[in-house]
Design brief:
Blueprint: E1 7-16, E2 19-29, E3 34-38, H1 45-52, E4 60-65, E5 68-69, H2 74-78, E6 81-84, H3 96-106, H4 111-124, H5 140-152, E7 158-162, H6 170-183, E8 188-192, H7 196-202, E9 205-210, E10 213-219, H8 220-228, E11 231-236, H9 242-246, E12 251-256, E13 261-266, H10 270-279, E14 284-289, H11 294-303
Parallel strand pairs: 3-8, 3-9, 6-7, 7-8
Antiparallel strand pairs: 1-2, 1-4, 4-5, 9-10, 11-13, 11-14, 12-13
Helix pairs in contact: 3-4, 4-5, 5-6
């Protein structure tokens, strides 16, 4: 695998008048990455997506797509990019084949290669039997598939998907997530979404933007491990008072879930917590690391220290 990143963003800034919507962000996307790009409304996420896709010029900074400077050589850079906006750019009076043939011309795919490119895109998106159907007569899930097919028609190295499952039913959502996972094996993908379970199910990396700045960038495992350090769920058959648990100098915050179950933050190993419960005859029945949901982690990072884990 080449060491050159598929996307390299350096010190990206975007102003709207005096308002700084994106404030000096930098990141990279490698082949095989499915990067979940998260942020609350107004965080600068959509502005960043528009700059990455070449629809909006940055005030400062650089964007390289597959090694090509997007600002200096926009045509060559965009040739390596497939983009599905939140509202797919579909002509619903066209059939699937007519639309993809039109997109192939826009992408300057050679006439001799168009048929094979269309067949491959349809096959990958589960549209092989839908070529003659009018797009307007397709379900929303299949329309999303057509939108993804146009994004991958020219076999780009990078795919940007903006809210690809909004408005779909649970079965359609599962199908689109499976498609994204499959595409991630041969492309670099940026998935911009508000749906946190979507990130957990398909992404191997996560990036959170808040108030125009990146507040976190890591792989999913690292994010969860960092947030879970020192927090344990403990179940006791003969539970003491919370004050008795807090009495140990290595115990920090204690949250009582119900009569027998607690979440305990400690500054030492779980063995010491277990020993304390056994030595005091509290009837230890369960002791496991407490895992925060990505939703809670997102709230903690975007709201600051005020969010309770």
């Amino acid at each position: 695998m080449s060491s050159q990143p598929l996307i390299s963003v350096n010190n990206l800034v975007r102003y709207y008048g005096d308002y700084c919507a994106v404030d000096n962000i930098s990141f990279e996307l490698a082949a095989g990455d499915i990067l979940g790009f998260l942020g609350p409304n107004g965080a600068g996420k959509s502005t960043t997506m528009q700059m990455l896709s070449g629809n909006l010029a940055p005030s400062e900074g650089e964007i390289h797509i597959n090694g090509v400077d997007l600002l200096d050589k926009p045509g060559a850079a965009k040739a390596a990019l497939g983009y599905l906006p939140e509202v797919p750019p579909l002509y619903k009076e066209m059939s699937v084949d007519e639309y993809l043939r039109y997109c192939a011309r826009l992408r300057r795919i050679k006439k001799a290669d168009t048929k094979d490119a269309m067949a491959l895109a349809k096959q990958r998106c589960g549209l092989t039997d839908a070529g003659k159907r009018l797009i307007g007569n397709l379900s929303k899930g299949f329309q999303q598939r057509v939108g993804i097919a146009q994004a991958i028609l020219h076999s780009p190295q990078v795919i940007i998907l903006d809210e690809p499952t909004v408005g779909l039913d649970p079965i359609q959502i599962r199908e689109i997530r499976e498609l994204i996972t499959e595409l991630g094996k041969s492309h670099g993908i940026i998935l911009s979404t508000h749906i946190l379970p979507e990130v957990e199910s398909v992404c191997n990396r996560v990036q959170i933007i808040n108030e125009g700045s990146l507040v976190y960038a890591s792989d999913m495992k690292g994010l969860l491990e960092q947030q879970n350090t020192g927090s344990y769920e403990i179940s006791l058959h003969r539970p003491p008072s919370i004050d008795d648990i807090r009495a140990a100098n290595f115990v920090g915050q204690v949250e009582q879930l119900d009569t027998n179950h607690f979440i305990v933050n400690i500054s030492t190993t779980a063995d010491e917590l277990a020993s304390m419960a056994v030595n005091n005859n509290w009837g230890l029945t369960r002791l496991v690391p407490h895992e925060h949901s990505l939703e809670q982690i997102f709230i903690n990072l975007t709201l600051g220290d005020g969010g309770n884990a």
